Amino acid sequence: MTEPRANPHFRGHEAAVASLYHAATSGRLHHGWLISGAPGIGKATLAFRFARWLLAGGTTPDLSLPPTAPAFRRVAAATHPDLFTVERRIKDKTDKLQSVIVIETVREAIQFMHHTPSEGGWRVVIVDGAEDMNPQTANALLKILEEPPARAILLLVTAAPGRLLPTIRSRCRALALSALPDADVAALLEDYAPELGPDERDRLVGLAEGSIGTALNFAAEGGVALAGLVDEVLAAPVSPARAQSVADTVARAVEGTDHFETFFTLLRAGIAGNTRAAARGGQPPARLAGDVALWQEFGKLEREVVGLNLDKRAAVVVALSQLHRS
């Protein structure tokens, strides 16, 4: 999937796009915006789309800019002098990502915002993953929201707005993005992965729950095949020999990737879906409690296996043995 800063594809979220467009063209553009929503639905893509449109003096209501435009190319290459991105960075002399957004990065952004725009327009700062700020970093950012420089705008992107300081949330215009309609996910899959067949694309749309990022991750990680295994094990008990075979398949897929986590994500999603369907069908809460407990237990098992680097094959076999116990 194309990085958000270089992504020309965008669908849905018409109300949010209209809010940004009307604010910018009215001459009353707020200095801070909080773009929130579930992972993979286009939050960062929208932030960079608006940033390059604003920096280019755009006029199109859909905030589009041709990929050939100079502002598009420079934003994509991270070389535009009036755009600064705040995010977790690679630690010095390591290949590991910082666990939080560090205060030094925010201080750089604050200094950047106080400079005069290089090209006479706006200075834009995008905080991608704003929930990754620690309290010290968040308080530093709050100061710029309380006393914003002229011709500077701050776009905070987050999947967890509740983790931000209330004072930060109160000083930003909120743009809460909803899950994408299935038709938009399907169209974006055609844009990003035209090699997918219709059946595979339809299954990915069903698995994505309105997130194009989730759909593309599943496509890259064998999610359709794993979903087929999940359907099988949820439909009826499997024999010990078949459980070992499923575990072997999942384990082979996980070498060097995150397919183990994908399998458990799909397994827990299947359990949750079945539980919701049973509840709508009038099953009493007592009958549903076991499924809820199983969903929670499998989440704990996944975290322990990944966090402690335990045997993934054994974990799959254990999980399958616990299905259909009642």
Descriptive report:
This protein has a 5-stranded parallel beta sheet, with helices on both faces. The chain has helices spanning 14-26, 43-55, 70-76, 103-113, 135-146, 166-170, 182-192, 198-208, 212-220, 223-235, 240-254, 259-280, 285-308, 312-322, and strands spanning 32-36, 83-86, 123-128, 152-158, 173-176. The protein folds into 2 domains: 4-176, P-loop containing nucleotide triphosphate hydrolases (Rossmann fold, 3-Layer(aba) Sandwich); 221-322. Helix 5 links the parallel strand 3 (123-128) and strand 4 (152-158). It is of the alpha/beta class. It is 54% helix and 8% strand. The model has no long low-confidence stretch (mean pLDDT 90).
State the end-to-end CA separation: 42 Å
Q: What percentage of residues falls in helices of 4 or more residues?
A: 40-55%
The CATH architecture assignment of the largest domain turns out to be 3-Layer(aba) Sandwich
Per the CATH scheme, the topology name of the largest domain is Rossmann fold
**Number of DSSP helical runs:** 14
* Major sheet attributes: 5 strands, parallel
Strand order of the largest sheet: 2-3-4-1-5
Any idea what the CATH superfamily of the largest domain is called?
P-loop containing nucleotide triphosphate hydrolases
Strand content: 5-15%
H-E string: HEHHEHEHEHEHHHHHHHH
Calculate Rg over CA atoms. Answer: 23 Å
